[in-house]
Structures are given as structure tokens and as C-alpha cells.
Amino acid sequence: MANFLPQFHSIKTGCDHIVIAVEDVSDLWPVIKKGFEERLPIKKAFLNNKTRNPVLVDELPAEFILTTDARLRSRFPQEQSLFWFREPYATIVLVTCEDLDEFKNILKPRLKLIFQNDEREWFIVFVSKAPAHNDQATKMAKKVYAKLEVDFSSKKRERCCKLDIHGSDANFWEDLEAKIMECIRNTLDRRIQFYEEEIRKLSEQRFMPIWNFCNFFILKESLAFMFEIAHLHEDALREYDELELCYLETVNVAGKQRDFGGVERGDDQAILLDPEKKSLTQIVQDDSFREFEFRQYLFARQAKLLFKLNRPYEVASRGHSFIISFSKALALHESILPFCMREVWVITACLALVDATSSHFKVGLAAPDIEKEFYRVQGELYTLCRSKLMRLAYLIGYGSELERSPVNSASLSMLPWPKPAVWPSLPSDASSEVLAKEKMILQESLRPKHFGIQRKPLPLEPSVLLREANRRRASLSAGNMFELLDGRPNANDGSGLTSPLPKANAISMSRTFSSPGNFESSIGRPMRLAEIYVAAEHALRNTISDAELSKSLSSVESFEQKYLDLSKGAANNYHHSWWKRHGVVLDGEIAAVYLKNENYDLAAKLYEKVCALYAGEGWQNLLAEVLPNLAECQKILNDQAGYLSSCVRLLSLDKGLFLTKERQAFQSEVVRLAHSEMEHPVPLDVSSLITFSGNPGPPLDLCDGDPGILSVTLWSGFPDNITLESLSLTLTATHNTDEGAKAIKSSDAIVLSPGKNRITLSLPPQRPGSYVLGVLTGQIGQLRFRSHSFSKGGPADTDDFMSYEKPTRPILKVAKPRPLVDLAAAVSSALLINEPQWVGIIVKPIKYSLKGSVLHIDTGPGLRIEAAHGIEIEKHGIGSQNVDNLANPQEENCSPLASEVKRLALQDNKIELPEWTSNINSVLWIPVQAISDELPKGAPAGTAVPLKQSVVDGLRTIALKLEFGVSHNQTFEKTIAVHFTDPFHVSTRIADKCNDGTLLLQVILHSQVKASLIIYDAWLDLQDGFAHTGKGDGRPASRFFPLFVSPKSRAGILFSICLADTPGRGEAKELHPDSILNIRYKISGSRSLGAHSPVAEELKGIDGEDATLTFRSALVLQRPVLDPCLAVGFLSLPSSGLRVGQLVTMEWRVERLKDFEDIAASENHHDEVLYEVNVNSENWMIAGRKRGHVSLSSKQGSRIVISILCLPLVAGYVRPPQLGLPNVDEANITCNPPGPHLVCVLPPALSSSYCVPASA
């Protein structure tokens, strides 16, 4: 079977579609050929795959070939079974007949002869030539077709269809396609079954000595190729995958040593995407194939199918894995392959795979995840190619052009050297090249870093190339160790690029190593590094057949351009993938090339991206490698803002990454630019260099409106002291994000030392709320800076530890407006009116210091301050002391003055409180006197006392304003009401009337103060119409003086009086309408309880003099009730009673008892009486006039009834409305009933609005 391999290869080349055989029995094909071929390719075809599942094929390519064609008649039976995939999948038999006899005698026997081969899938197409207008011919054609269907069709399968040439039958073409697809499906299923059976038989023998992989390959690929031409690409791909697995299982069977391949010219170029690059006959070996070519052939077949399936991502992904695994296989056979064959092949494979997959990939067609993965694999291919190219460049002496960056060092230091059987020897005519390489080596020097930064260069090789190359020479002698190391004592530091020789050593170097005359030395002599470079370069020229790759390694410029292209390709693809960080890292390698070529603008842009990545990830070691390069570019470009930012970032890095002198160089650059004239000054962000936090402990607590001193801790990352010309710090409210930040500024320059610094800032009054530190801003020279980072210094378990994971701790809390102090009267009881009295004002600080406070005092009308007596202050009682100081009782007595009474001077109606009263409750005693010119009046016993009116009359106010706080910014204003009253309230009553006309007048004294009163004397000055009996001195009948009256108690004095004649009308101007009661008394009370001895009297008491007070009250004595002028009687109420909500008429009868002319002679209208109804509005509603005049004759016995309509509002016993006569003296009126009485008011009647009468 293996002999058919060349023929199999040629068949695959010329067969790419399904063949449909046409058996033209009646020579009809030329007539209908065009119509048939227009139906190709077959649209929307369903085929069964290997697992017998239907698969939709959008376009199935096919070709109609006559059975008489040479392509179908020149095949041998053995070929037909082996290459069955190229045989026809369906046979169409074209017939026509116009007579039944002709059909029976000629056509039918011929068709039976054709269908004797049951293996073919066939059906008959009957072509009718009958014209449409010839009915007889049309009927005959229908009879013949009916007979044809009877003979060749069955119930299971319809094998006939009819085509009318002169008619139009659209159903025919659908029927034709259905029958063709049925035949193709059946044929395909049968052939799949055949191939599977044959493959199974061979698979069972694969571990037996008779196993022949070529036979298995032909069968397996025949099946795969059949799937491919049927457009069942998934099944074809699966067959190639199985074929690859089977080959890998059997290729290295023990006892069978085969050639690996890859030694021919041009094998260095990968053929991963060109399966026809080498014929199978060229790589066959015995019963199998060479691994080097065959594995690439299988991958090329797989890639071709994947491209047809529009899956370029899978091609790239599989290709990357294949390159990695095949590279390992090349490493195993590296000793027999050309020098660096492995590296060259990987480069060409990666580039070919990248180009092919990129051209097939369409953006937007794949899912987003697949698209990103595709770009990632592309980046991986570019990176692998880039690493191999750098290895080749290092071998030929271009290592000095490579950036010794961490990514390059990581890639190359882990990449092993080539391992040829013998390291390439130096050609005999390469003396000039060696001299050039030596000169290049001597001129090598590392480019100095900006700021004078010194770093040990990173290695770019796994081991010293000089030692590795000489070790692999055919006959290695120990030689001279100094010669082995190329005359450089520091060549064993692990880096291939070392510092050049000193100038003296270079001049005195032996001619043995520098002259071109000694290159024909013994092979045992170790090769120098320049010779190794030249030998490797010549060997690579023999290995590399790709012109473009050869050109890339022909010069430093060409290599640099190729290196740059590969780095850009990898970076761009990584940027579009998930691995964006890889792309940014490679941007740094591209930037290094730009920096070397003095393309500073592009280099700076790329370095900024790299630095942003390293800073964001916290890779400070890597950032320290590239940030100086960025700073160098920015300085050359005169980018002052960027250069400043880079210097600050360098200072912000870990201190161990740079020496102290290097950090000082960074700071000097910052200070130099800050004090220079910048063209475009911009704020500098120093968040990573200057951090800040509040001091440990609780936040600063302030009250609303208070200023304060805020202490802040700053950490400076500068290595030396630095002066800040200005500094401001913003506070951000946590409760209201809409409110803008408030800045507090320091007016003085601040010098920050390295490390921790503490500063204080004056804090103006803030709004209530909690505040955190916001942004720190300031100025260094002409440069404005800002910082918004919190300090992270201090252990994690202290308040000093600040991090982004920990919530920001408030530094300031301003309390909401609350009472900070309270001013209240020391006593609530009444003081004596018209006498100097002490008014106590309690000053209560509420968790707030009153140090330096000033109290403004302003008295209201009717009240004055007795400033001559001075103002006293003392500590308030312990029961009402400041709650804030209960825990610290020693603070109360911080001053010896706190327990004593001290006098204060009043200046401009204000006093300054002593310091010892700042945190404790104190009482301020102010001497005042309430002025009242009215004489108090007594009342008859039993009448209601108008207490409210008396309270209002004795009310005085003191307006207080307290200024306190640090700068008297806090004010508290309050008006205090102080009640003043007379010591007694006087009421009178006639105790008895003697037969001789003597009246016993009882005067009842009601004490109105919380103090003991001592009455020493009393006398009564009577009004006109009354006279004293007895001595007539106005003294009381009973003299029990001194009379002691307890607080709020009563005492009585009895006077004996009688009626006297009143003066005539001519003497009316001398009438005395009121009687005057005079009382001489003393008061014994405490100013902390209420009324007390007057201030002046206390002072007299100190000298031992007695001081008494005089109280005078006006009394209205009523004439005897037996001689009234008018009588007012309350008429009886209705018998039905009073009820809430029902109107009722109240009636009073007014009757004149005697002639009123003498008494009311002065009145103009003595026949009219003014009346007024007094009522409690809470109990009654008056529906009428409450006040008016009524006509009443002045003659004795005249009477009138006054009626008022009233509405009761409340139920119970209430006082009814009272009728009064305001213009008539009460002594001339007699009432019935004589005193206040009560009436009963019933509740309202039940409502029956919603009641339903009960049924009878």
C-alpha cells in the first residue's frame, strides 16, 4: 500500500470536490448540461458526519462527469478501493423514449444491464421531448414515464424524476437536488464505514512488528480528505488530530532508529502553513516519515482546516503550543542539526504564524473573550520570536545593543545557550572581522544613568558565553586561565558584557591576541570572545536561508529595527488582550531604543505608561529602573512639570533603592526648579512624599462658633530639610459632601525635617459637624504643591497608623449649637417693692469655660440698680454645680476666692466675671430697687383677689448679655423676670355692729413674701363718713405688738369705728374717699429664698441701729348694708334646669331703694344706669350685649329687669354670669344673693339622629 504514496499525493492535489457521474443513455447531456451545472454548488445540503449526525453544509461543491470521461474509466479496481474518496458519489441516468414498445424492447433491458452493480447510488431522469401543443405525444410520454416508475421505483425509494424540455416544472429541480443529496449521503455513509473498518484493523497492529505507518496514514488521510471535499471540516480535523497522536505514539518505538530530518538547506524555515512545501515521498523513511517534516505537515493540514472553519484564534493557539513542543524536540536533536537551527526555526515559525492568523482574523466577528485571547497568543508569538532573535544577536556580538532591563534579563538568563556537538570554528579568512569585533568589545560601555545612579548590570545570559563556547570545542585544553577569560579579571561576574580594559592594559596587550597573523593556532587554544562572535556569525550564515532574517542580523542597525518591530508587535497585541501589563512592560523596551536613538519625545510617552503601571502595582524595584530614564527624557525635552513630578516620585520610592547622595540629588533638582522661573508653573502632587495625619488621641472638640488651634503631623520623605514658604490644609465635612472644603492656612514659613514633624494651625470658627483632613497644599519657592495622602507611619495597632483600608479618622468635631451657659434667677419668690433688694443671677457653664467672660446688665422700666452698694458674687450650692466638674471636685476650689463672697464693680452696666467662676456655677447678687408710685388697695373680705393683676403690676425685667469664649465670640442673651410685691395684702370686714352704732372693723393682713414679718405698730386714717371711737388716735382696739407674721400666713387687727356725717356739697373737694392703713414692721428673710431686709437696712444693722419699714394701704370702707341706694337681685332660673348647648335667659332686677338725687347730684344723666355682665368665657357664651346703659327713674321704688341670653358650655356646678354696675359705688348696692353662688348645668341630651324606633 505504501507504493501508492506518490499517486495518493497527486490525487489529493487534483481532487477538491464531489463527483457526480452522468450515464447519458439517450445522448441528452449536451441539451440539459447547462441547466444542471447552474445548480452547482448545491446550497443548504445536509450530510451525515462520522457519528451519523446531520450537518448543514452551506455550499457543497460538485462536478457532473460523464461515465465515458477518461477520468472515470482509467482506474484500476485496487485503486478504487484504496482511493474510494475520489469515486462518484451519485450516478444520474439520462433517458428518453416516445414509444412503449421501444421502452419494453430496448430501453428497459439496457437499464437493467447498467444497474447490475448494486454498489452505486443511482436514479433515473426521464427527459420528455413532447411539445406542449401535441397532446398525443404528451400522453405517450406520460405513459412511458409511468411504466418507468413501475419498473425501477419502489415503495422504499423513489428513483425516477421527469424533466420536460418544452415545459416549465419548478418542482423538478428540487426533486433532482433531493435525489442527488440522498445518493451522496448514502455513498458517504458507506465509504465512512469502509474506511473505519480498515483503519480499525490497522490500528490493532500498530504495536506489532508488521506495523506500517504509511499504510495507516494513507487510509486515515483518505478518510480525512473525503471529509474535507464534503466540507465536513470538523470531522476532517478530528482525523488529523488522531493521526498526529498515533504518529507520536509510534515514532519513537524502541528498536527503530529513524532520521529526525532538518539537515537540508532551507529546513530552517518553518513550513507550518504550507503542506505542499515538501512532498510526502521526500520525507518517507522505511515504513514511516521523518519527524521534522511530517509533524509540520500535519500541523499545516490542521491549520488549513481551521482557516476554512474561520477559527484563526485556534490556529494561533495551537501553533504556539506546537512551536513550544517542537522546539523541545529540536533541542533533543540539536547536536545533529545546524548551528542555532532551533532558534532560527522558532523565529520563522512565529513570524509565519503571526502573518497568516492576522490576515484571516476579522475584528468584530469573534466573541470578545476569543478576540482578547487571540491578541494574547499573538503577543506570546511575538515575544517568543523576540527572545530568540535577542539570543542570536548576543551570539554574534550585538549584546551591547540590548537593554539590560529586568524583562530582557528574565528572558535571556533563563534561555540556554545552543548545544551543538562542536562549537563552530573560526574561518581562516576572518582576521579582519575579529579585529572589528575586538574593537567593538573594547569600546563597549554602559550608558550612564541620570543623576549619577550606579547599578550593577543585569545578566543577559545563563552562563559566561566564553566558557560555554570553549567547553564545547572538540579538543578543549586547560590553557591559560587569563586567556580563557579574555584577559579580563572581572569576566566571571555572570555578565557577558563587562567593563572594557583599562587603557594601559589595552596598549600593552600581547600581539598574540591582536595581530591577524596568529589565527591559525592550534585547535586546543581557547577561543577569545571576539573569535566566538565571528565563528557564530559565519555559522549562522550557513544555517539561515531566509533572506529577511539574514538581513536583520547583518548589521546593528538592521537588528535594532527588527527588534523594534517585534517589540511593537508584541506590545500592540498585548494592549488588545487581557495581558495589558505585558504590553506596557514591552513599551518600556521600545522606549529604551528610542532613548538610545535620542528620540526623547516618544521615549518619554512610553516611559510614562510604564511608570504608571509599576507605580499602580507597587513594583518599586522595577520603577526605580525606568523612572530615572523618564526623568532624563523630560529634562532634555524641558518638560519642567514632568521632570519635577519624576524627581518627587524618585524621592517617594523606598529609601533602600537609592543611595543617600542620589536622593539628595533628587531633592536638589526639586529645590532648584522650585526657586527658578518656570514658564508654565503647575501644581505638583507630592502625595507620595509629604503625608499628613492628625495627632493621636481624640479629635479636637469645639463648640459652634469657637476658633481653635489644630495640631497636624507631617511626614517628610525628603532626605534633607526643606522650607515651605506657605502651607494650607483643607478640612472636609463628613456629614455634608456638597459643602466645599475649607482651607486653614499657616502664615509663617515652615521647615520640614526628614521624618515626623508636628505643626499647629490657627483654626477659624467652623460649622457644626465632623471634619477630616482633606488636601494639603503649600508652596516651595515659586512652586505650588499639594498632597492628598494620609500618613502610614506608626504601628498598625495605634491611632497613628493610617492606610487606605482604614476609614479616615475625624480630626475635628464641632458640636451642634447647644446651650453653653445658662443664666437664671436665684429665687423665684417675690421681693419687696420700693425697697433695695438683692437679685440673684445664677451663672451656669454647661461643659464650657467662661474664662474672661463679661456680663452686660440692663434693667427694664420701673427697676434700677443700686450701684452704690456694689455687686457680690459667690459659688453656687453643691447641689446645682456644673455637672462637668462633679468628677473633679478639687477643681471647684482651685482658687481660695471660690468659697468666699467677693465684691465686683459695675462699669458701664457690665462686669467681668472672675477666673475662678469659669468652670463652676456661681451666683451674682445685684442690688436693685423696684419703683411703684401706686398705693396698694385693700379689698372687702370674701371678694376674689385679682392675683394675676397684682403679679403683672409687680413684674420687672433684667436683660442680661454674657460675652464669653476665647475671643468673646460666644454670646448668650436672656431676659429674667423678677417679681416684686408688697409685704401684705389687706382685706377688711365688719366683725360686729353694736347697738350704739359702733362698728368693729377687722383688718386682715395676708403675708405675700417668704420671710417672717414683725409688726411693731399700726394705725388707720379713716375716710370721710367714718370716725374712730375711744381715744381717736387711729390705733387698733387690741394692741398685741410686736405681732409676728409667719411667711404666707395671716394676721388680724381690730379697729373700733362709727359712722360720721359727710361734708356738704360745697366741701366736696376736701373729701377723703379712701381710708389709709399704716403699718410699721421689720422683715427677717434670706436673699437666697426671696424677700429680705433692704440692702441699706442691712448696712445699718451692722452699726447696731434699728431700722423699721412702713407699709401703707388704701382701704375702701363700705357703708352699712341696711342703707343701700340700689338693690340687684338674681331672678330664678327655669324649672327645667340648665343643659349644655341649650340657650337660657339670665335675668337681674335692679330696684331703686331710695332717692338718688343727693348722692348722684353731680351726674348729668342720673336717670341712666351703666351695667356690665362679667362671665367666664370657658363656661359661658353670651349671645347679646355684655355692657350698656338702661333707663332707671331717680325716684324711689322704680325698677327694671336686665335680660341676657346665655349658652352653657360645660356641665357641672359653675359660677353664673355676674351683673355689675361700674358707675355706682359698691357701698350703695345690695345684692341678692349677697355673695358668689353656683348653678348646676346638666350634660347635653343624647342624640337620636341615628336611632330607629323599636317595633311595637
From TrEMBL:
S-adenosyl-L-methionine in keyword set: no
Major subcellular location class: Golgi
GO CC annotations, alphabetized: Golgi apparatus
Domain (TRAPPC10/Trs130 N-terminal) ranges: 17-316
A Pfam entry, by short name: TRAPPC10_1st
Residue ranges of domain TRAPPC10/Trs130 C-terminal in the record: 1136-1219
Entry-linked InterPro entries: TPC11, TPR-like_helical_dom_sf, TRAPPC10/Trs130, TRAPPC10/Trs130_C, TRAPPC10/Trs130_N
Keywords: Golgi apparatus, Transport
SUPFAM superfamilies to which the protein is assigned, alphabetical: TPR-like (SSF48452)
Keyword Cell division: no
Compartment(s) where it occurs, according to its Swiss-Prot or TrEMBL record: Golgi apparatus
Residue span(s) of domain Trafficking protein particle complex subunit: 567-652
Name of this protein: Trafficking protein particle complex II-specific subunit 130 homolog
Organism: Penstemon smallii
Lineage of the organism: Eukaryota, Viridiplantae, Streptophyta, Embryophyta, Tracheophyta
